[in-house]
Amino acid sequence: xxxxxxxxxLWLAGALAALQLILAALGIAKNQDEAMAAVRPVAVxxxxxxxxxxxxxxxxxxxSDMSVLLVAENSHSDKPWLYKFAGAWGxxxxxxxxxxxxxxxxxxxxxxxxxxxDKRTLIATLGAQxxxxxxxxxxxxxxxxxxxxxxxxxxDGNGLNPLLxxxxxxxxxxxxxxxxxxxSVAFSFAVGALVTRDVGPAFxxxxxxxxxGAWIFLTLGITAGSYWAxxxxxxxxxxxxxxxxxxxxxPWLAATALLHSVTVLATxxxxxxxxxxxxxxxFSMSMIGTFLVRSGILTSVHAFAVDPKRxxxxxxxxxxxxxxxxxxxxxxxxxxxAGNTFEAVSREGALVVNNLLLSVVLxxxxxxxxxxxxxxxxxxxxSIGPPFFDKTAGPIALILVAIMGAGPLMRWRRDGxxxxxxxxxxxxxxxLVTLALFLAFAHGIGILPLLGLxxxxxxxxxxxxxxxxxxxxxxxxxxxxxxxxHLGIAxxxxxxxxxxxxxxxxxxATKLGEPQHVGPFIITLDSIVPVIGPxxxxxxxxxxxxRGDGAxxxxxxxxxxxxxxxxxxxxxxxxxxxxxxxxxxxxxxxEQGRWQLRLWWKPFVTFIWLxxxxxxxxxxxxxxxxxxxxxxxxRDDEEALA
Length: 642
What we know:
- There is one protein chain.
- The protein has helices at residues 2-30, 33-62, 69-74, 81-86, 92-113, 119-143, 168-195, 201-232, 243-268, 272-294, 308-332, 347-377, 386-406, 417-423, 425-441, 447-464, 477-502, 607-641; strands spanning 504-510, 515-518, 521-532, 537-547, 553-555, 558-563, 566-571, 573-577, 580-589, 595-603.
- The model has no long low-confidence stretch (mean pLDDT 89).
- It is an alpha+beta fold and 642 residues long.
- The chain has 18 helices and 10 strands.
- Strand 2 and strand 3 form a beta hairpin.
- The longest helix is centred in the last third of the chain and has 35 residues, at 607-641.
- 63% of the residues lie in helices and 11% in strands.
- The strands form 2 sheets. Strands 2, 3, 4, 5, 6 and 7 form a 6-stranded antiparallel sheet that branches. A 4-stranded antiparallel sheet has the order 1-10-9-8, with helices on one face.
């Protein structure tokens, strides 16, 4: 009965989404106060029912109820409890239910918490959110039912893809989905503001926390996913320009542009039409990502290869939502006032250039991701990989970093070029010194890594420049957030450039007791022994590692075999040091009895993920600071009226 209760909750949530849309439409079109008053409670109950459906799906996974088709196809009674729990969304149907659950919770939160915009704009926003949710409820109920029964029920299931049997499954997808849903809320606010012709600072202030929250979670999701792939797949790389990786990067790029634009609108009443358009583009990217992962047109570690008819359903939803929003934008853009103007040399001007460059990078990533798919549809097989993205998007990203360093040092509305250059003297000097040092001591370094390291040093100096000559105790929290986020980008860039410039890789076949060298390390294979895990068997190597005169330590990479489904995986063993990581992978045994080992020394590669964490922390501090300031302003207004 648990599955039936979950399906009933899903049907009721879908019905309430339809009711919410109808009530919002009636309330806006005919100005019916009763209809508008009912929208908020309906949104709250819809969100609660979606949570109930997701909780019941998790329950059937935890109970290993093999009479539920989804459990039988994606779980096994012998799996550790964590993978039963997270396995509820480690598949097509469950991930879509998680998506719509987060969407329902977000809609309920908007209904309960939002009081900054005009009532009609809020109701229109909730109506747009209901329309998005309704499409996905229909998709789940008629095309991807997560509670479908299987008769007769098997004794055990097929198991979960071994590559997904990692704690990352419990963290990576939910953070990405929260990011996607935050973008959907921003999209709904944009649609609501267009419907009521209320595009202005109040609408932007209401949208900004959702954009910032989405950006934070997308940053965390991409960072966690990158490290998960790095240690789980055993390839030694942190980013492969996989189409599904790109599908998560594209919404982040659009959300970054939207975040800067909505800040200008909220604080300076500028870039009105551009902000609305970016909200549509950002949501389009999240929908395209959903389509790519679940359409069955991709072969990827991350993709759920499903019936292409489901992909057509999602494509139809994308066309309806984005096409409708673009038609609405075209119809109402004439009613959107221009807002305040600004000079080209100003912080707003730098943000506009920033957004344009982000849009160019986004376009290149989108083209490189979709072009092979379109070509394949016409019978032409081709592949676009890292060289294309590195050579096209890489230089533009470096220009973007340079402008990012200058932007926060500019004044709002108007500034002078000479004054900006004077403020950039210290960051520019740091960059030049860094360039000279690498040219002198790092021979053979590539041009892009060299420029990356140079600009990372300059950006790091420029990032902390807004704190110069300020009382740090009185500096607003959102200023600290901006500083830390920009510093995080500098740290990540330094890690990426270091990995590209200085990584050393060795592929060897070795016997027991033979010392091997990679970077500053001497590595000896001591033994190979069989081990038994919770739901796998493995061959485990013991490697003794020495670095100079330091104490020896051991690493134990494994080659694992999973019976359900039958899969062999490589479990890397990684030693993290202050100046980088030693990365080891065990391969197969050859005819001479030697064992293959893949060894990497990656100087400062950890900066990539440390920078990602700093970026997210900066976003969180900025969000906290903005909310704290608005709460203080509200309290001051209430005291003034008392």
